[in-house]
Amino acid sequence: MTTKVCDTSPSTAWSDELADWYSANHGVHPSHEIVVSTCIEHLCTLENKETLTLLDIGCGNGSVVQALASQLQCDRIIGVDPTPRMIEIASEATRNQGLLTQTEYYVSGAECLPVVDHEVDWALAIYSVHHWHDLVMGLTEVKRVLNPAGRFFVVVEERPDLDADCSELAIKEKIEANGFLLEAQATHKTDAYHCYLLLFRLPN
Fold it and tell me: Of the candidates 54, 99, 100, 101, which has an alpha carbon nearest to the alpha carbon of residue 80?
C-alpha cells in the first residue's frame, strides 16, 4: 500500500476533528453493502477483472476500498480524499485488515487525480460528488483517467438537508452535460437510507 499527497484545494479538506467524528459516526454507510455488491456484480462479468484498476474518489475512511479489496481480486484499488486525516484513518484500517497488497491511498481532491491518463477501469464516487470543490474540473479529471471502455459509478443520497443542486436529478444532469452517458440506474430505499446508483460511460 502506498500513501501519497497530490496538490488540492485547502477549502475541500476537513479538520482532523471533523474527520474523526465522521469516520466514527458515518464511516460505514448502511447502503455500503448494496453499493459494493452492485460494483462486484458488474465487475465480475468482465474477462480481465484480475488486471482492473479501480478508483474511489472521496474515499473517506476507506470502507468501500476495503470491502472491494476483501472480495475482489484485481490489480489496484485506489482511494483518494482531500482530507489528510481521512487518508490516515483509511490507511490504518486497511493495514489492520491485512489488505495492503492491492490498495493505494492518496491525499487528493477530484480536481487533481494522481493517476495517469486512461489508467482507470472503474471510477467510483460514493456520496462524494456534492463535496467536490469544482464539479466540472472533477468530471474532466474523471474523463482523463478513465480508459475508453471504463465506467463511472456514482451513488447519490436523497436527504432533506441537501440543497436541490445535490439531488439525484441535478447531479445526473450535470454529469451528462459534461460528456457522460447514463448506462444504468437503480434506486434503493429502506428506513435507514434512500439512494440512487448511477452508472455512466464515455461516448464511443
Answer: 54
Domain 29-158+175-189: CATH class, spelled out: alpha beta
Q: Are strands 53-57 and 76-81 parallel, antiparallel or unpaired?
A: parallel
In this structure, how many other beta carbons lie within 10 angstroms of the beta carbon of residue 70? Answer: 12
Relative to beta strand 103-107, strand 146-157 is unpaired
Question: For the whole prediction, is pTM greater than 0.85?
Answer: yes
The residue behind cell 494522481 is 114
> In terms of DSSP H, where are the helices of 14-161?
16-26, 32-43, 63-71, 84-96, 135-145
Secondary element (H or E) of residue 148: strand 146-157
Q: Which three cell numbers stand for residue 199?
A: 452508472
Q: pLDDT (tens digit, 9 = 90+) per residue, 110-149?
A: 999 999 999 999 999 999 999 999 999 999 999 999 999 9
CB 91 within 8 A of CB 115: no
d(C-alpha 120, C-alpha 39), whole Å:
15
